[in-house]
Specification:
single chain; RNA_pol_sigma_r2; 171 residues; RNA_pol_sigma-70_dom; RNA polymerase subunit sigma-24; Rna Polymerase Sigma Factor, Chain: A; 7 helices
Length: 171
């Protein structure tokens, strides 16, 4: 292979004649149009920095080979940086409860406890057996010596009362 001197205007003409093809080629490689544009510009700059090329006739092939090598370098660098540190998503939530959320939950718990405490004794007992102890309607009815229908009615009454207390801004 002989070394030939190449002029900047020859490189510019070569690049202009093949710019679209180079960008399309790079899009296939890196899967990103913006990156492909950047790499095509880098290809052009690399050729401009050379005073001579060790190439005889196929300057177009040399242009594509330079673009391909740049795309390989980009992909390798991107894979390495992706393995080392993932970028944080701005929407990524902290897994720990935040102070303001904790305050809201604390207030809701206090209101719920007050709502449960303010229920009539039997209604409160049914709610706790069903929701805390996770007994079935039949088990609650048997334990308290009442009908399942009474358990259902009292449970609905208790839950509505708690719901109203939680949503009432005065409490």
């Amino acid at each position: 292979m002989s070394v030939i001197a190449i002029q900047h205007d020859q490189i510019a003409e070569l690049f202009l004649n093949h710019k679209e093809a180079i960008v399309d080629f790079l899009i296939q490689k890196v899967k990103c149009p913006d990156t492909a544009q950047d790499l095509s510009q880098e290809t052009y700059l690399r050729l401009l920095r050379k005073d001579s090329l060790a190439h005889t006739e196929n300057l177009t092939g040399y242009l594509f080979r330079t673009a391909e090598r740049l795309s390989i370098d980009f992909i390798r660098q991107h894979q390495r940086s992706g393995a080392k540190a993932q970028t944080l998503d701005d929407e990524l939530a902290c897994p720990h409860i935040q102070p303001e959320d904790f305050a809201i939950l604390s207030q809701q718990c206090e209101r719920l406890l007050l709502a449960i405490a303010s229920l009539p004794r039997q209604c409160r007992h049914i709610l706790l057996l069903r929701k805390i102890d996770e007994l079935s309607y039949a088990q609650v009815a048997e334990q308290l010596g009442i009908s399942e229908k009474t358990v259902q009615r009292q449970l609905v009454k208790a839950m509505l009362h708690c719901h109203q207390m939680l949503n009432d801004p005065q409490h």
